[in-house]
Amino acid sequence: MTGKAHAAHRDYSKLNIILTVVTVLGNLLVLFTMFNISKFATLGKAAFIFLNVLVLVIQLIIDVIVLSAVRTHKGKSYFLGVILSVLCLAVGAFGTFTVIKVNQSISSITNTTVEESVSTSFVIYDSEDAFSIQDVNGLEGKTVGYAQSTNTGDLGKNQLNALSLNVSLEEYQDYSTLLIALFNGSIDCAILPTNYMSLFQNEAGISSLLEHTKSVMDFEEKVTVVNTGGADKDITKEPFTVLLIGTADGLSDTMILCSVNPISMKVTMSSLARDSYVQMAGGGYSKLNSARAVSIDYLIRTIEKLMGVKIDYYIDTNFQGVVDIVDAVGGITVNSPVSFVGQNASSQRGHYTVYVPAGDNVTLNGEQALAFARERYLFSTGDFARQSHQQEVIKAIVREILRTRDVNTFLNIMQAAGNNIQTNLSVSQMTEFVSYAMRKANRYRVTDHVEDVFEIQTSRVTGYSSGLPDDGLRLVLYIYRLWNGSIAATRNAIERNINMDTPITKDSSRMSWSVNWEFIVPTISYEFYNEPQIGYEEPSWMKEVTCGEHAYADDNGNCVCEGGYEGDAYQGCTAIPQETQEVQGTEETVVMINLMGRSQKEAEDWLKSNGLRVAVISQESEAEYAGKVVAQSVDSGKEIKKGSTVTIAIGTGPGSSPEPTDSPEPVHTHSYSGAETTPASCEGTGVMTWTCSCGDSYTETIPALGHDWQVVDSVNPTCDSGGYATYQCTRCGQSFTENYGPQTEGCTTPEPSPSPDPEPTPAEGEQG
Amino acid sequence: MAKRNTQKSTDVHTQRRHTNGLLTVVLLLLCIAVIAAYVLNIMKIARTPSASTEETLEIDTSNALRNDQYTIGNNPTDVQKEYFEGLTDALDTQDEIAVCDAVVRCFVSDFFTWTNKDGNYDVGGLEYIYGPKMSTFEQWSRYNFYEDFDLYLHQYGRKKLIEVDTITNEKETFQAPDFTIVEYDSEGNKIETTLKSYEVNVGWTYKEGAAEPDKFPTRARFYVVNHNGRWEIAEFYDLVSVEEWESTHGGSSGTE
Fold first, then answer.
1. Is there a single domain that holds both residue B175 and residue B214?
2. Does one domain contain both B121 and B214?
3. How far is A442 from chain B (nearest CA, A)?
4. CB under 8 Å to B206, separation ≥6 — which residues?
């Protein structure tokens, strides 16, 4: 044999080994991928069997070609074998990578044992900001409070032990009562979550006192949280309940209790207000949203206790989860009553960067959908409008999932969910239910709206506003008390939907229908119930208040001067001379105003004229916000030092970018005095004009006050007649009446009045 | 030297043949293993229980009937098929009374039969309802006649659900005064449409063995309207309520 022939043979031997290894590896990776994706076979058994057969045939062909190449060493077949085996390896590797990612997502969704980072702070308070405690060691001998059954409380106590500090510990029901104890001096220090400022920024009465708090120590630790596993049910056969929780900063912002009946395909969704004042699982009373701060299990047990219904599963998501899932399905369609600029997924208020348009069937992306679901200030019914929008967003997401047939979309949804959602439903339960729902949707007659195969009946557990006075702080904490009738009605609706042994009482022998009759889905729960309301006795400190001239008592019983007046509100206020009115703040500070919606030049002029440095960034926005401020780094009303830098975001509209300013330089400070040139009303804005003695001036829009609706008259509906509730604005006197149809629950169906028999058309030839 | 080279060459050649033989065996084993693995996987998928209830009905399209204007409902009973064929025959004759009678029979045999329904959402007879109000009627049905379907199915089983057996006319069908349909456009403006209509009065029976038959209607009056050349049901009342009303308010019951 020649040397050349020898060399060729040696090459083939080594190549054969490499080729064989690549082929075996490729086959194994493809097999691994197929085994893993077959987990979702319930989504379409026939399709998965076909896929397995197809892949088997392809793999065998590749293996046979490689086998032939190894044996015969023919140039062309060898080359083909190499190509195919490398392809097989590449596909197998990609498939393996994808299924590992999907498995990780699924694992993080369904893992009921999670490791959470808990950030804790030791917080002190002084109304004058004259803090006597400078660091954590200053807590020696002091009284420290904590909220019971919370990780924060446990970690704080452990930290105190680790520091060998000798303190008196006081236990409180929840964070709200803990903070109140701190403010009224019952304790010297409170162990709170580090983000306590954002947790309570919307809490009436408390939020203004937060500014006088300080943390003397922050620390973070990981804790393992074990949540209860879900019920062992076949949810394609048995009705079940599921609690949807929207969590923000450790509190449950949204709580919707759902019941699902897979036979009737009926779903009830009942929203619970986060300020609902209820008995906790641990025994005491508190606001419902604080239960989540303890744990998911605690929240579930609290709601089970409240509603008298067993909760089989939960799905807990954060803000980003909503954004990612909506984006994964390609956006959702809703009916938006008003257009507005709302908050993005950041939980800090002041990040107004999302424009939501008005109209029917508008398509929203993830951030817009979240802003739509969170907004409440623009709507007269506030939190209740928000609950309705949250339910609308959920229905819209269900609609898009049922309509989609794209595997890539499902993978995106899994990834979005994996990062942001926790549930105690198992993977098999979820895939089986999705498959089941799709099968039902495929046989539904109304093909344009397959999502209507689910009949979703929405409601909320209603109640009335009330308060809890605190004598120490002289403030009234807002709470929402629930009607017992609403709780019972909601429980009955859920029971009917999940208990298929419910006695059959309906008599359908009398039946009528007409195209001219309007059908309204029956209400689960009414707005009002004829029950005594639990109010609170007006505290003595509110009764004793006598304010001076041009002053009035606020909600907390404190006298404050009317706008444009100053002085001692208890003795009498005097008018502030125009020329001496200053921008609030000291010579070294300035109070930030609301720059939103102003032009870039207006905003820069104001900032520079108040001794502030300006930095500009661009932010994509709708066309109408191009060139205008859509976000500011310092909130309106905050006092900041002159010379500080304020960053403003300017809307770019589609495609354009404004030029940032040059390096800022401090300028001469004006001194403005303000005058309300046009007062704001319930529906109209006002105008404040600020003028400097040098002649420079600018105007500022005072936002519309909004209506303050109070119920002035109401009649509960009965079986025979409807009811109504009349609302009147305490400011402008405008009113409207909301009518309710007759009660249907527990009533017999009223008999219709059939139209009388007409005279028949005489047959031909007959006399009349 | 040449002899040594030849010997060496033979040894190398033998070694390579041995190696190739081993690789061939490996690849053959791989093929067998791949086949076995996929066969097992396919068997596992085939044995996976379907995501459905024991009561879920597959759609039987083998006997799907349709004519120029109507399509029979899913999983039709023999009675439904019989009346649908009657409808097809009536359409051929272009006899309006015969068509209206047949439409009502098709509706009754589908809407009031539960044995072939998959769930509360599977409302029968939608095909024969005034088109623009079909969705509203479907939703109304889920809160009224079909509301307790799941309870009956669970507590009595499918075999004891109601199934329409025979349908007869209570009296002759006749042309009624034109029927006025009131609708509203997107701006809230009222739109009235007047359509030719026939009054059809029928009674029916359910098959033996149905659970709680007294709780279901057996006689009704229908108003069938001509909607763009298609006959559709615009209104119906159970006859017990009609007769009670007429006995209180007086009023003829139509021609004999």
1. yes
2. yes
3. 10
4. B112, B162, B163, B164, B165, B213, B216, B218
Crossing angle between the packed helical segments A366-374 and A319-328, to the nearest 10 degrees: 140
How far B89 CA lies from chain A's nearest CA (Å)? 24
B127 and B89 in a single domain? The answer is yes
B13, B74, B177 member nearest A443 (Cβ): B74
My answer on whether B12 and B106 are in the same domain is no
Domain extent for B187: 78-249
Name which of A52, A455, A515 is nearest B41 (Cβ-Cβ).
A52
Using a CB-CB distance cutoff of 8 angstroms, which residues of chain B are in contact with residue A27? 30, 34
Quote the ipTM score.
Answer: 0.83
Task: Compute CA distances A407 → A31, A101, A179, B142, whole Å.
Answer: 19, 15, 49, 32
CB contact under 8 Å between A510 and B242, yes or no, is: no
CA distance A182 to A206: 11
Nearest C-alpha neighbor of A634 from the set A667, A701, A674, A585: A585
CB A96 within 8 A of CB A30: no
Name the domain count of chain B.
Answer: 2
Per-residue model confidence as pLDDT tens digits over A11-29: 578 888 888 999 999 999 9
- Bridging pattern class, strands A266-271 and A277-279: unpaired
Are B235 and A71 in contact (CB < 8 Å)? no
Residue A335: both structure tokens together? 């009916």
* CB within 8 Å: A20 and B23: yes
Chain B residues in contact with A439 (beta carbon < 8 A): 51-52, 56
State pLDDT tens for residues A586-601: 557 788 887 877 888 8
Count chain A–chain B contacts defined by CB atoms under 8 A. Answer: 239
* Domains contained in chain A, CATH given: 3-110 (no CATH), 113-226 (3.40.190.10), 240-498 (3.40.630.190), 579-670 (3.30.10.20), 709-740 (no CATH)
Q: Confirm whether B67 is domain-assigned.
A: no
Contacts of B234 (CB under 8 A, 6+ apart): A514, A515, B130, B179, B181, B195, B197, B223, B224, B225
Of A517, A587, A553, A535, the residue nearest A753 (C-alpha):
A517
On whether residue B254 sits in a domain, the answer given is no
E strand or H helix that includes residue A573:
strand A572-575
CA dihedral B53, B54, B55, B61 (to 10 degrees): 90
A437: nearest Cα among A52, A11, A717, A43:
A43
Kindly report which listed range (A460-469, A698-707, B170-179) carries the lowest average pLDDT score.
A698-707
CB of B176 closer than 8 Å to CB of B231: no
CA–CA separation, A570 and A572 (whole Å): 6
**Which of A51-55, A474-478, B140-144, B179-183 has the least mean pLDDT?**
A474-478
Query: How far apart, in whole angstroms, are the C-alpha atoms of residue B238 and residue A114?
Result: 59
CB contact under 8 A, B119 and A500: no
Spell out which residues of chain A touch residue B122, defining contact as CB-CB under 8 Å. 443
* Chain B CA closest to residue A39: B45
Residues B210 and B119 in one domain: yes
Which of A446-450, A672-676, B203-207 has the least mean pLDDT? A672-676
Q: Calculate how close chain A gets to B92, using CA atoms only, in Å.
A: 23
The answer to whether position B191 is within a domain reads yes
Q: Please give, rounded to a whole number of angstroms, the shortest distance from the CA of A496 to a CA of chain B.
A: 10
Are B145 and B93 in the same domain?
yes
Pair B86, B40 in one domain? no
Please give, rounded to a whole number of angstroms, the shortest distance from the CA of B234 to a CA of chain A: 6
Pairing mode, strands A143-147 and A189-193: parallel
Cβ–Cβ of A49/B46 closer than 8 Å?
Answer: yes
Residue numbers in A near B182 (CB within 8 A) = 516
CB contact under 8 A, B139 and A506: no
B56 lies in a domain? no
Q: Looking at the structure, do residues B121 and B43 belong to the same domain, yes or no?
A: no
